């Protein structure tokens, strides 16, 4: 087994990717990551273009590098640390390589069997928590509604098969994407993410608003 690539990375790299996207991951991103966090330095398109054009000039535009990164995003080899507009340049942004940070021994069995989506599918809880932490999901709990939406989508694509590791991985990224949705009506938000509101948090905020409202009235009454 290739010890430089863990099993999860190998599976992802063998999905529908261009060879240039694989080169970008293996030579442009992975060697520079912070081993403690799994994060790249800020993307430097000038350096990445030089690496991609080592033998012949194939890439001259930033949007071409964007396209390769989007390929890696599709198979969940990379994720952005912060919310990013996918229509703009990624130059200067920071990527996370989540699969690199997983200990493959813990989840090796999840790579063995490929399966279609089923109505009773649920993510592997331990893997979900680990991946959620790596990609920065604040509220690591997931709802039946989130599972239902995910399952319903993939039931409509019966030709698609993934391992339990890959299904769970896709679910994690789906949850993050939905919670980062700008137009989603949030019960409560932390930063850019939509999270399930805790009763105590909402009550506390409502109490603060009431205090502010009526303390203002009391001041105006006492001054009149």
TrEMBL record:
Residue span, DnaT DNA-binding domain: 115-183
One Pfam family from the record: DnaT
InterPro entries associated with the record: DnaT_DNA_bind (IPR040480)
Name of the protein this chain belongs to: Primosomal protein 1
């Amino acid at each position: 087994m290739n010890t430089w690539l863990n099993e999860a990375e190998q599976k992802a790299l063998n999905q529908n990717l261009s060879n240039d996207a694989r080169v970008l991951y293996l030579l442009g991103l992975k060697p520079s990551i912070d081993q403690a966090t799994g994060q790249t330095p800020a993307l430097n398109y000038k350096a990445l273009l030089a690496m991609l054009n080592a033998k012949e000039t194939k890439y001259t535009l930033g949007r071409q590098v964007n396209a390769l990164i989007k390929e890696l995003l599709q198979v969940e080899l990379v994720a952005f640390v912060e919310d990013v507009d996918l229509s703009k340049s990624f130059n200067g942004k920071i990527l996370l390589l989540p699969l690199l940070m997983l200990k493959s021994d813990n989840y090796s069995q999840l790579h063995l069997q490929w399966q279609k989506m089923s109505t009773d599918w649920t993510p592997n809880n331990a893997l979900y928590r680990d991946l959620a932490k790596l990609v920065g999901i604040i509220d690591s709990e997931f709802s039946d509604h989130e599972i239902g939406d995910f399952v319903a989508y993939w039931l409509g694509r019966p030709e698609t098969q993934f391992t339990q590791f890959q299904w769970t991985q896709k679910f994690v990224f789906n949850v993050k994407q939905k919670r980062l949705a700008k137009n989603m009506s949030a019960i409560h938000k932390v930063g850019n993410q939509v999270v399930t509101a805790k009763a105590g948090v909402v009550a506390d905020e409502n109490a603060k608003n009431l205090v502010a409202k009526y303390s203002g009235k009391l001041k105006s009454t006492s001054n009149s």
